[in-house]
Design goal:
Order of helices and strands: EHEHEHEHEHEEH
Structural class: alpha/beta
Radius of gyration: 16 Å
Helix content: 25-40%
Bound molecules: 5-O-phosphono-beta-D-ribofuranosylamine
Strand content: 15-25%
Number of strands: 7
CATH class of one domain: Alpha Beta
Number of helices: 6
CATH superfamily of one domain: Formyl transferase, N-terminal domain
């Protein structure tokens, strides 16, 4: 059997997507490492519970963002990570990190991209904007990360209805449920492709 593909996760918050990825038991994948960019976030507790090694790496400890991403990439590579999943990671990914993992960084966004993406479109802001625009439908998108926010090639989407009287929280919960399904499914597909392209 092929060696499992090492996955690293970057998160900034609660980490429910991180947990859903690990718990999915994706064949051919090994979750090697979680990096969070601030101390005390929920994702760290989940990593402990799930037995995944985790590290806090704070951007302010470095001269600039590029140095921060060099350090994160180095820690990932040391642990055999070859696919990076962003799971509620709120910082813009810099070009030097993308060059270390070309086409191998995935993100999940809680809206139907290309709508409701880009700078400032994160967390509750996304769902507020969807409701304010009077959309009948929202959902989530898994995409490859490139040098622009919420922009790279789309790999999968799942739709949910916007219901009368929805609040941002109610809509967020409906979308999150779908995130927990399509992210592991998509990572599994990517892993299978990566396995096929190995010599
Ligand atoms: C999710 O909606 C994710 O799509 C977005 O931020 C939220 C994070 O949730 N980027 P969690 O930290 O995975 O629980």
């Amino acid at each position: 059997m092929n060696k499992p593909i090492g996955i690293g996760v970057l998160a900034s918050g609660g980490g429910s997507n991180f947990e859903s990825l690990v718990k999915a038991g994706i064949p051919g994948a090994k979750f090697r490492f979680l990096v969070v960019n601030k101390p005390g976030v929920g994702a760290l507790d989940r990593a402990k519970r799930l037995g995944v090694e985790a590290l806090v790496i704070e951007p302010r400890a470095f001269a600039d963002r590029s140095a921060f991403y060099d350090a994160v990439a180095g820690e990932m590579e040391k642990r055999g990570v070859s696919l990076v999943c962003l799971a509620g990671f709120l910082l813009m990914i810099e070009p030097n990190f993308i060059r270390r993992f070309p086409g191998r960084i995935l993100n999940i966004h809680p809206a139907l991209l290309p709508k409701f993406g880009g700078k400032g479109m994160w967390g509750h802001h996304v769902h507020e904007a969807v409701l304010a625009a009077g959309e009948k439908e929202s959902g989530c998108t898994v995409h490859v990360v490139d040098e622009q926010f919420d922009h790279g090639p789309i790999l999968a989407q799942a739709q949910v209805p916007v219901l009368p009287g929805d609040t941002p929280d109610a809509l967020a919960a409906r979308v999150l449920e779908q995130e927990h399904t399509i992210y592991p499914e998509t990572v599994w597909k990517v892993i299978r492709k990566m396995g096929e392209s190995k010599p």
